[in-house]
Amino acid sequence: MSRNDTVSIAIDTRDVSTRRSYFRRIFGRWGARLALGWILILVVAAVFAPLISPADPIAQDLSDALAMPNAQHLLGTDQLGRDILSRLIYGTRETLLGALLTVFVAVAIGLPLGTIAGYVGGWFKVLVGRFADLLLTIPAIIVLLAVLTVFGNSMYAAMASLGVLVSAGFMRLASASATAVARELFVDAARVSGVRAIPILIRHVVPNLIGPIIVQTTIVASLGLLLQASLGFLGLGTRPPYPSWGQMVAEASQQIYSHPWLMVPAGVTLMLTVLSVNTIGDSARDSLFNGGISGGVFRDTRPKDIRRASRALLAPAPAPVVVGNDRREPEHASAPLLVVDDLHVTYPVARGTVEVVKGVSFSVERGKTLGLVGESGSGKSVSALALLGLVPQPGYVSAGSIRFDGIELAGASERTFSRIRGRRIALISQEPMVALDPCYRVSTHLREVLQGRRGMTRKQADARAIELLETVEMRDPRAVFDSYPHQLSGGMAQRVAIAWALAGEPELLIADEPTTALDVTVQAEVLELLRRLGSDLGMAILLLTHDLGVVADLCDDVAVMRHGLVVESAPVERIFDAPQHEYTQGLLRDVQILHGDAHRIEEVAR
Amino acid sequence: MPKYILTRLGVALPTLLIIMVLTFLTVQLIPGDPAVAILGDTASPEQLAALREELGLNLPLWQQFGTWFISVIQGDLGRSLTTGQVVSQAILQRSVVTITLATAAVLVTAAVGISVGVWGALRGGIVDRVVLFTTSVADSIPNFWAGVVLVYIFAVTLGVLPANGWVPFDVDAGLWARSLVLPVVALSLASVATIARQTRAAFSDVSKRDFVRSLRASGLPLPQIIFKHILRNAAIPIVTVLGLQFVLLLGGAIVIEEVFTLPGIGQLAINAVETKDVPMIQGVVLFTAIMVLVVNFTLDIVYAWLNPKVRL
Asked: Domains, chain B, ranges and CATH?
């Protein structure tokens, strides 16, 4: 489960090597290998049952009934003295055939019907979708009971019917994929060249779906195994004396008071089989989504030595260490609000670690705006998030110092950060549309800060919230207050996010690419708003951007970042007039090319 | 919201109608002459004629459906071919057990499954791995096998809970609860595992979304972020899965009733299969379909309550 595996594409289309590596990934885990091994053993057992069974599965010997495992009967005998191992081995045949039949029917109905539905679209697609929903409405076992009532006690009729019921999953997969494929040009090309469309579609749809189909197949197979066993347990399907696993459990349950052992062979075999199918399915799903999901979402994932290291160790002298509490030392009014010194942020990878921030230093003066400029991947976001103790997991601050108004934040505790976040340093992020909780109204977001962090009553909080929404120049603050995030436009959502950040009356506002995701016209408005707020409220702003135009508009000072390092930092005028570093010069050239037309117009006007 | 509820009803009612048509057609699907198939080759011509009359097989198909449909909406599902019981009465009488079992199981599934899933997602490390492993094993245990093993442990060996049987609630609530414990545990085991895994995945997924970072940056305490914000967002996909689990649990209840000899509709259904009692199996199919529709409708409303985007 290596984390740096994210580049490989699981559901690639026509690339055979990718597909092969997908299979290799599924069975790269020992669990999936064991599972596959078990299934192969079952297949061998089913095919060669007469050869490998130690005894006749239906030969009774009442004188040797209910024997415990011994040399002659490796798993003992049942209430009629039949050899349990042999019955298990013969039972494998029906079990596997039944599951196979279910999968076959489900695929044979689901894939073509879904493909056609996705390709044709329109009412036919709706109809197939409804049909798929309908199939999931009645418990499968009830339908199977009805089928068995009508068609007589035939296991194969039941398993085929189950295949029809569970074809819905394949139908959905194929329909969605075919819709996408049908839009692509090569299908048109294929049609023009006179080839019939449906075979072409299936040929293009199926490879797209190889991963999801494997996952769905394991789901269907495991359901088939369990339902078949349930029917056997209920005494339906296979007729005694011929063995089925479910029936063996039912017979064993009759002897539970005297011979509990009988529950073990059939039960464990059945469980291992279902577990194997599920394990392969899980592995296939995880390989599809690259490594699966890791737990421990809010845990401290820093290495032990870093966690143990005191703040003093992380932040070498001369930084005066604040011990025990966060009472800040009196600092000179002239001292910068924030001083980041030699900050390192490290990520663990498969082998060792990688530094994404390699010794960054910058400072923000009170009430001033610092532009942190760099491309995505330059480490500017990670550096800024470190100020709030929110470096995305599993990264961590591995060295350096972050001094905010006398408080050391590098390696600080959650308790320290809980006092800083929102109240003293606030954040607005790049994507306003996903920065708010979609389940709650704007009002909830603002109230949580105003009541929880500023200790207001609900009434005060509501009044202040409306004020804040007015401050960010919202046209209809009341309506916005009562809106859900999905009812806002990008620009409105960003204003709400700004109001939300202002609610805690922070001294420092981190704005991470605050306008990148917005329309050009809205960008200018939001930037103007930030500039006004900065000067009106005397709030310092740390502005992260890749756009030097934005920097020229808003910033007092600039730090240019590249590859996890600050390559140049200076007041804004100096950056524009006399850039020292080659990289800064390059960035400036790009801006001049982009804004070249405007310059020329100015020149002409002169 | 009222508009949304109406829309969902608009989806549920046609579904019910289609299920009724399919249920009706089960008799027609019987290969050969249904009367012969049901009564066997030895039946006399009079008996066959009587059964055709009983099932209305002499009429044209649409007329048969019309008559059947009208009586079904009036609650008349006919009589059992073997016992002569009124089908609707037999089902209603026994539905209490099945409904209790399935409802208790779905509640246990939701409560335990979500708690375990959140626990695994939050703790990570060894706890997470144990949760993952245990749930994948539990997910593979057939409910009937679990039932028998639970009986062996808690009834046969420890003698703390009854091995089988059903005590109605109004007779003795304590005994009622005791008679429910093992069946409900056996029934919900696999579903708990499924929901736990789904919750773990949904919770981890939501935790990585941008708004969680904004909430943390706003200084909101972590417990409030976890239980008020993340859990609510994670609950949205879980509700959908819970609906699918209910369908499985209702089917599983039929099997579990057999394990614990509980007087639910499972026994009716199994007898019907063995005796080709078509009206009875039709009644069971319709009953379960209506149960599922009712539960799905309820879950649709919960879903809309959780997720403001789908409310109209």
From this structure: 87-311 (1.10.3720.10)
